[in-house]
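Human: Here is a favour to ask of a fellow structure person. Comparing notes only helps if you start from a blank page. I am asking you to supply a protein in sequence and structure-token form. Write it directly below this note and I will take it from there.

Assistant:
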Amino acid sequence: MSRPTAKRGPGRAEGRLNWWEAPAWGRLSGVDHIFTIEEARQLLPEVRSRAEDLVTVRADLVEIRQALSDGSPSPLGGLAEAKALEARMSELLGWFPASGIELKGLAPLLIDFPAVLDGEPVLLCWLEGEAQLGWYHKASHGFAGRRRIPS
């Protein structure tokens, strides 16, 4: 049986598949970690802490970029500060995939933890502002297919 070709994109190594693209007969390819619900929930305090930092950096960067675009001063600084914020944002964003977490959206921040629920590959889904990890969806269903994680 031949293996499907990998999608190209940032952080995608040649020949690697998105985990949901793995053949049904095989293991989940291209995923560094499959989370249990408990593991993902234990990691959530760190996720929320980094998300808070990211939200602040994101807002500051938007404000400085707008001021630069308008040619007006910003109390947050100018081009040098914008470049420093961009570097900080890149650092913060890099933590998620390095931890096995998929970053799906930046504003609002939306992340997925690859997991298996009832023998099916799913994504445990967390959206900026949510107090806990309480949702999942199948990869093919996306955000609109979110369901509560069963108790």
